[in-house]
Amino acid sequence: MVIVGAEKLEYLIRRMFERAGSENEEAGIVSSNLVEANLTGHDSHGVGMVPRYINNCRNEALTVNAHVSVEHDNGPILQLHGNMGYGQVIGGEAMALGIARSLELGVSIVALRNSYHLGRIGAWGEMCADAGLVSIHYVNVIGHQPLVAPYGGAEGRYSTNPYCTAIPAPSGGKTIILDMATSKVAMGKVRVAYNKGEEMPEDCLINSDGERTRDPGVMFREQIGALLPVGDHKGSGLALVAEILAGALVNGGTCVPANQNSGTIHNNMLSVILKPSALGDIDYFQSELTGITDYVKSARPALGVDSVMVPGDPERRSMAERRATGIPIDDRTWREILDSAEVVGITETDSLEMVDQPRRVAS
Questions:
Q1: pLDDT over 90 percentage in the chain
Q2: Helices 122-130 & 24-39 angle (0-180, nearest 10)
Q3: 95-100 LR contacts (CB < 8 Å, sep 24+)
């Protein structure tokens, strides 16, 4: 395990993306987003993704320096094309358009198709919430073999199809950011456990025979297993809804076999962005928001629980801790990052110097 300061880690990752062909601004946006995911405790969407991103740059499964295109603009409805650019850039540009339209008209519906990996969807919810807006996001994932079994199934059909709702903070309060995979865990968390040599929690995975297992390695074999849906039939149903809304309705494609073979991470996202004052009295909204949040958090904690939290609290706690102490990276992920840096022409010695790490690394 290594512990790396956020600023130094972001510098290394930015240099890697610059060497892979990104202009300085793009490299900065992507590296900042990935490191922020680690800071918020979502290592599954953090710098551990860098080797795959670099590989997809090299095989042209993503387009460097691409920007979002407006295909149709019909008042509150925006149909956008991501041109398979970095989702950290495409997602930000899409949300900026949607936010501006919502502030003007009270609502926007943003239909984004053909983006490369959009990263942590909560980042786009936070962007809307910071502008004082409520947002709802449905995402589907195609371009590779399915990873998540439908309820009652013994093999994958979906990917992890994230869902996110973000609610702006009332005066003196905090934002509510519900950002979740429709599987019990994100695939990136399986990768993190696999790299650490740890078992997964119970009832998250099945092997290729459809049997329950705690071994994350079943997702990294020639015949892979599958993740299980969160909430059983409920999560499975929500994954299907995300597939239909983000994939079919947005015209980006669903996870049918014809869309599984491009060897990339292809995201589509349907976002609904709402201005609270367009729906009712803003003071009433904020008062009730404060009241219900405080009431929920006032519940007596269960045995072994320090305090009751609401969505967004764990991320804020992790952010404070990791900014103070650094970002932990398991040895296998760190080795993959160093090897990926070598691929784009940054020696291991230079990488270690950039992040003030000693020469000793895991083999």
A1: 95
A2: 100
A3: 95/124, 95/127, 95/128, 95/271, 95/273, 96/127, 97/68, 97/70, 98/128, 98/135, 98/271, 98/273, 99/127, 99/128, 99/131, 99/133, 99/273
**CATH number, domain 1-59+325-363, options 1.10.3720.10, 1.10.1530.10, 3.50.50.60, 2.60.40.10:** 1.10.1530.10
Greatest Cα-to-Cα distance within the chain, rounded to the nearest angstrom: 60
CA–CA dist 239, 8 (Å, integer)? 37
What pLDDT is recorded for position 336?
96
> Nearest-CA neighbor of 158 among 241, 215, 222, 89?
241
Q: Which residues pair with 273 in a beta bridge?
A: 108, 135
Local confidence band at 363 (pLDDT 50, 70, 90 cut-offs): very low
Contact 140, 252 (CB under 8 A): yes
238 vs 96: CA distance, rounded Å: 26
